[in-house]
Amino acid sequence: KFIPILFLILISLYPLVKSSQISTTFVDSQEEKSSLPTSSKDVIVMVIDFSSSPGDTLDQTNLSIVYEIHKKIQEMEGIRGYSSIFNAPIVLALDDEILVLPFIPDEILTFYDQDKITSLKSQYKDFPEIWPYISSDFLQCVFYLEPGRTYSSVRLIENIERLKDKIEDLTGARITEAK
Fold it and tell me: Which of 48, 72, 105, 129 is the most buried (most CB within 10 A)?
C-alpha cells in the first residue's frame, strides 16, 4: 500500500550554489481535481528552489544541476515515468505545420547561449504547457515522478534516498532532511 509521505530536503551546493531547496511530496493526483501534468494516480512531486542561490533555474550552473537530477531520475528504479522541464513539450504552429518541441533545446546544455535563454524566458507566458514545470520567476523547477505499481514503496523511498546521495556526490552538496 502506498502511503503518502512528505519530506523536505534542504540542499546547499558548495561551491556551485550557496543554497537550494529540494522538496519532495508523495501525492494522490486523483484526490481532488488535479492540475498535475500526469494521469497517474500516485505522483511524487520534487521541487528544486534556487531562490537563495545566485541566478535562477535557467542560469548555466543551475541548469546543469537540474539536468543532472533529470538524468538521475531517468536511471532510477521504481519510477514508471517522469516529466520535467527537459521533456516537457511545447506546441508551436509554424506556417502550416504544428510542431511539438522541447522547451529547452538539447543543444543549450552543450553550447549554453545566454541570448537563447533570454528568448526562452520572454516566451514563457506563451507556453502554458511548461508552467507546471518552472515558476514564472524561474526560481523553482518541478519534477513529476510516477511510481511503478508493483514496486515497493519502501524500496522507492530507498531509491529516492540514493538519488539524494547521488546529487550530493555529484554537486558536493550538504543535504539536510526534515520529515
Answer: 48
